[in-house]
Amino acid sequence: MELMELMETDLPMPAEPVRAAVLPAAAAKVSVAPVLPPDLRGDPDETEAGGDDASRAESESLFERFGWLYAFFRERLFRDDTEGISAALWPQGAPPAGSRLLELGCGPGFYCCQFGERFRDLRVLGIDRSRQQLRRARRNARKRRLENVTFERSDALHLALENESVDALLAARLFTILPQREEAMAEMHRVMKTGGRCFVAEPCSRLRAVVPLRIMWGVANLLAFCGYARTTAFREPPDATVLAPAEFGALVQSQPWRSVWRWQDAYYQYAICEKGPADAPKALAAAAEEKAGEYAI
């Protein structure tokens, strides 16, 4: 079955770069209150800024309410592209000591922990909106004793990071449920250091894109039908978005990267975006104008 093809071949790498121009029922009456596992009941011990109101707002997310389910997909079913991502971000074999890696939509921290364990001199920061996912991610990092890996609750559209503050960036399956794609790409470009690389991976297989979301929606509807849940109103869309190759290409090239490499296999499409100096777009535009002048009549 396609879903169970968990460990496919290593990522193929493109031979040549493509230069970027510009560049989420009524409760059933029962005599005894149902008892659910902690992940379904929420964690009363987990408090953050915003208090109860913030917790209620976040409960309207499938990734918050059923964080354990998505973590199962990420940790047990999705394939592991650590080797290919590492080779793409650091072709020299390893990041320079003290380098900083940022992952957007880190979920349960799978890749953050992978790279934090592999490169102990690498500082890794994982960003996600879900408290459930971040709770699991921090637990995973503690189990592996990764003092160089940290996690923060934040929004990919408004990163609390300075300009040019990260050396490498990873965004895998971020855009399947995020409609503000170009805004997220702009933030990625803003926080990337000159010379740094960004790795983007999005499913081009519809099955791989929709199955986790559809199953979470199915569990939510089933629990509501059985009286275990108060609502089926979640902020996530009922279906995931699969970007066509042309849409994916236009998205990654919406920012003035110095170079963009793009390729795909049967299941995913990938891009490596390298940031150049701030004046690179002006230089490219000037060169193009000069070239056009050579052929003016």
In brief:
The protein has 297 residues and is α/β, with parallel strands linked by helices. 37% of the residues lie in helices and 16% in strands.
Write the layout of secondary structure elements.
Blueprint: H1 38-41, H2 51-58, H3 62-65, H4 67-77, H5 82-89, E1 100-104, H6 110-118, E2 123-128, H7 131-143, E3 149-153, E4 166-172, H8 181-191, E5 192-203, H9 206-225, H10 245-252, E6 259-264, E7 268-274, H11 280-294
Parallel strand pairs: 1-2, 1-4, 2-3, 4-5
Antiparallel strand pairs: 5-7, 6-7
Give a description of the structure.
With 297 residues, this protein is α/β, with parallel strands linked by helices. It has a single domain (2-294), classed as Vaccinia Virus protein VP39 (Rossmann fold, 3-Layer(aba) Sandwich), CATH 3.40.50.150. The chain contains 11 helices and 7 strands. It has helices at residues 38-41, 51-58, 62-65, 67-77, 82-89, 110-118, 131-143, 181-191, 206-225, 245-252, 280-294; strands at residues 100-104, 123-128, 149-153, 166-172, 192-203, 259-264, 268-274. Strand 4, helix 8 (181-191) and strand 5 form a beta-alpha-beta unit. It starts with 37 loop residues before the first helix and ends with a helix.
